[in-house]
Design a protein that fits this description.
The chain is mainly β. It contains one helix and nine strands; from the N terminus they run αβββββββββ. It has one domain: Porin, CATH 2.40.160. An eight-stranded antiparallel barrel has the order 2-3-4-5-6-7-8-9. The protein is elongated, with a radius of gyration of 16 Å. The two termini are 22 Å apart. The N terminus is likely disordered.
Length: 176
Amino acid sequence: MLPRLLVSIFVVMAMACGDGRSATNSPLIPSAPSSAVSKPTPAGEQWNLTITLRDFTGPDDCSIYAKYVGESDDDWSMTVERSGELIHLDISLLDDPNVHIEYNGTIVSAVFTATSTQSVEGRVCGGSRVSLKSERRVSGRFSEDGHALTAQGVVSSSLTTGETLVFHDDWKAVQQ
């Protein structure tokens, strides 16, 4: 299994959320927004989430991310709230719920689509600090009994340099 920080690279990119951790060898070192405040635990169904990086494309100097293709991280929890045709997903690290991202979308029968956007500053691909604007989309399906889900995520992050990083990942989750 990947070391937590390295796995978190693509998830944090996917989340565009900084946790204030630092590592000298990390290709992405996000910084928490100055107004970051601990959020209360969200209401809803609690799930265990595993995210696997399926594919990465980006500039040559970001090729470090490609070596993590196929790697999985199961250190995530997810809260799912469903109301009619609306769905809200809040994913966070199990041991640090301040590292999280929220998705909002729709659900019809067992099929859902949700999106999230947010900006962040961080060191990307071992370079200097840049601003990122990320758009995230996840689409998937709940199992027939509603206690498991599979989904595919796409994260597109635009760098201030004009270059784009694109991550594709697979989600598998089971209700606790």
